[in-house]
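User: Show me an example of a complex going from sequences to structure tokens.

Assistant: Sure. Here are the input components:
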Amino acid sequence: MFAYVIRRLLISIVVLFFATIFVFVLVASSGNPLALLNANPHIPHATIVARENLLHLNDPLWQRYWIWLNGAIHGNLGTSISGQDVASEAISHLFVTLRMVIVATVIAIFVAIFMGVLAAVRQGKVTDHAITVTNFVLLATPIFVLGLALKEFVAIPINQHLNKIIFYTDGEQSPTLSGSFFSRLPDYAAHTALPVITLVLISYASWAIYQRSSMIETLDADHVRLARAKGLSQRRVLIRHVLRNALIPVTTVVALDFAAVLGGAIITEIVFGWQGLGQWYLNGVLTLDTNVMLAYLLITATFVIGFNLLADILYGVLDPRIRYA
Amino acid sequence: MPEPVAQENFVIQTPERVAAVEAGAHTLAGVGAGLELSAGDAHGLSGEAKSQSRIVLGRFFHQRLAMIGLGIFALLGIASIVVGHFWQYSYTSITNNLNDPPSWANPFGTNAIGNDMFAQVMAGVEKDIEIALTVAAMATLIGVTIGAIAGFYRGWVDSLLMRFVDLVLVLPVLAVLILLSAKLSKESDNWLGLAFIIGLLSWTYVARLVRADFLSLRERDFVEASRALGATNRRIIVKHMLPNAVGPIIVNATLTVALSIIFESTLSFLGLGVQPPNVSLGLLVDQGQDSATTEWWLFVFPVVFLIVLILSIFLVGDGLREAFDPKKSRVRA
């Protein structure tokens, strides 16, 4: 087991290394980072040359990559177009995004398991049909549509109706927020509720569909019939013998879907005006801010590779039949 | 795998004979006697192979939800073309009614510049379908080719291709799409380029499916039989192995259609997708979001059509999956 984890870890590091090359080439080909400066007639030529030297634009691609990688290993991700330190900016935006993504993923997992199990147990009945139809409708809804609809037709009417703000629809916290952590908590909650609901509804649907079919498959298994035959209660059969086995494939799917959740977070942040990583990245792309784009893609790639590793390890922990050869 | 060696043991190998015998070997997978079949017998057996697709279609047509999905999708597709040609307004024409609520003349109302929203929504549906079908065709072609090559040849080709797939999957598709579409969004007629980049990022799942299928198919007896008969690798892949992997490919192509509409509309919402004067449903939602509560028709109609369009495709895909493989009931999307 230990050797297996170490080997997977080493493979992950190699994948991450190749991912940095891939990311760098992708960003380098996305456009000239000085295009905006060049287009501005008021900027003297000397400034542009100085910027070119700062960004090493006259060096060959591999050399630029090497400089960037060296910096990144030492925690230095360069400066953004406006002269900010990218690494410290990235970290502050990352915490905003994680606040949304972690809460949403945890809730979505529980909702997915509950809905999937319920639909499987009531297979073919009204509950099953209602859940399945809901899941498919949510699967077919782009995340920005759901976010906008919740904002315009749920949150704002509720706020107006009650004449006070239950759901904030813009920003991750009130700009004037201060005080101890516990006194700030209600403000965080009111800002986080709507984005989290959006992200949960979009993420859970495909997991619930998966959980349902995984449950149905396990319900048919021989060991479940045996458990019933020896007189175990329905509840015990479901939890000990069906759910435990049915959770295994879903765990992997959830971990592997993490990239998609991060993609969804970009849109959720934009709809709800959160200053998270996604919003930061989009601005970086629009202003051709190379270091910002690189930092975002590096961070997400690291997270996704980390979750893939976690999926592999969890799979083994949950399913003892898997051998670490 | 044994190389095709014993060719000289066979009688003269005319192409027709190879084809006929292969067909027999194919359907009689695992039965050594297949090599002895005459052309006539092989013909009779390939009739059975045809009824396989009829069984699948029969199962598909018997599912209510899938048929509803297919009906809605066909209706939307036809309606978008008919409206584009015969409706009194085109999506670019400007009426004198500004921000009018739905009426008989403008069933979906008009927007702030006076465009007829019915024409706009239908043009959006048409553009979305165009883009989505282009993406699905492209992604399926790339994915099947790469998956087939990786699964058939194995070895270093397989490792190389699959590590590349892993690399593509390491980044959120949407983040890469944002990066690639930013440059593209400065051109006005960019929908084909947009379809191209979405297609470039959508083939990985098909490639994995086809590879997995091919890894097991290549060990089957009918493949060995046709190899022994001297069929080329290309012929084995295209004529014998691909038809056996067609189920997952078609199901996945359908899902790709739906997913690419989601991606395209998301990019359009960000201002990086379809550019005016072209319209897409995502762009219309973006333009209508500020007036969602005041001029609701600018927001609600594009949203409803977008969701219904994607949902109809998902229903077709789910029906196809069920029809191809009724035992297995899992969905990946």
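The lines above are the inputs; the final block is the predicted structure for all two components together. Chain A is about 75% helix and 0% strand.
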